[in-house]
Amino acid sequence: MYADKGVGLFKFDFAYFDAASRSALSCMLPEEIVEANKTSFINALKLFRVKNPGILLIGYNGFGGDLEDTVHPFRKTVDSRWLEVFDTLYSGDPRLSDVPMMNFWRSQDVYSDRMVREFAFNGVPLHRIDNCSFMIGTTGTCYRRGTAAWRSSVILNMARGGWLNVYHGNIDLLDDADAAWLAKAQKLYLPLQEYGRTSLIGGVYGEVELYGYKSAVADGCLFTLINPTQTAETIDLGSFDARVLFRDSGASPTVEGSKITLRSEQMVVIGTGRFADIEFDLGKESDIRIPVSVTPIDHADVTVSGNKAIAKLAKAPVSTIRIIMRQLDENGKQFRTWGGGLPDGASMDSLFTIRACQKSRELPLHKEYGKVLWSGLSWAVAEIDFSGIDSSKPLEIVCTAHDGIPAIELYEIIYSESQQ
């Protein structure tokens, strides 16, 4: 009926295939019922396509994929028959990954990157994966993000190569200048989606290595890269005419010939060939600040008892200190705690607590994870600004997990050359 009225795209969401009559339940196994329902639905969609050529069908929840977390190993969970009837399959609503980051929204970027790789592992072509990653707005669905770090989010949405570019949320939060910037980014990426070839490059997300996307045409390439680690990482792009087109604020990535080094939690867009031109510059992500250096602190005295970990430093460093806590089970596997969604859910910083003290003085912390998250979280990150630390006094840091065992890491952070 709606196709006859001119509707050209249909989204199917929250599909369950276990419905059955009483008689069917008495003579069929549960897996037989699911298979029969799937077969009927697939055949119905095939017939619908024959009657309505040119229609677009997109599949969301219920059509495969492990979407809940990013610690499970890759495995086959997507039935390839869905590719016979759906133009695209989505790979999960944006949520936080299990990679702890000071830059909260960058960890969310990493979730969608992980899901794209998992669906590609399942045999779904990149251009048919709807990464569904861009969501801005004032609701709990997007964690009341507003427009925080929206530019890097929309670039990654297009860089992943999917032909369905979805923008969810309060688009009215963007002004005319934002719209002009978005149009410029689309003008750069959308032709590459249509006429170029996008491929996955770099490390495997599960091993937490530098990774990204390469979109290539005959006379140039666009590289969109992320370093999810807490250390500087280098990749060889195989080209000597590279230009940085977009980056986070703070420290710049380092380009030396064909090699580029990304700092901790950094994202960058690199153009080569005809894309190594100033006309393609997209500026900076002003909402994410990258430090000049990140150095592990390996001389802390750490004790763990139950759900509490205490790290003691006899002498505090003269720099900003980054504190990372992961929540682990008894087998050392990271897992999430759910505090519920808005309006009655608990903020994650009330479930995962971080405190830092010098003598009897509690130090103020900068943290971004203190939000109500419908999808839960498995980590907490906070920083102590160097200006609040007395380097002559010992420092004690106490981290508390809610449901598991805390594992903590400490890093010295320098945000500007003047701190060195």
Structural class: alpha+beta
Global Rg:
24 Å
Major pleated sheet = 6 strands, mixed
User: In which order are the strands of the major sheet placed?
Assistant: 7-8-9-14-11-15
Note the total helix count: 6
Our estimate of the beta-strand percent is 25-35%
Overall mean pLDDT stands at: 95
- Show unreliable segments: none
Number of DSSP E strands = 25
Write the layout of secondary structure elements.
Blueprint: E1 9-12, H1 22-27, H2 30-51, E2 56-59, E3 88-90, H3 104-121, E4 129-130, E5 134-136, H4 150-159, E6 167-169, H5 176-195, E7 197-202, E8 211-217, E9 220-226, E10 233-236, E11 243-250, E12 254-256, E13 259-262, E14 267-273, E15 283-290, E16 293-296, E17 301-305, E18 308-313, E19 320-328, H6 348-351, E20 353-358, E21 361-362, E22 366-367, E23 379-384, E24 395-400, E25 405-414
Parallel strand pairs: 1-2, 2-3, 3-4, 5-6, 11-15
Antiparallel strand pairs: 7-8, 8-9, 9-14, 10-13, 11-14, 12-13, 16-25, 17-18, 18-24, 19-23, 19-25, 20-21, 20-24, 22-23
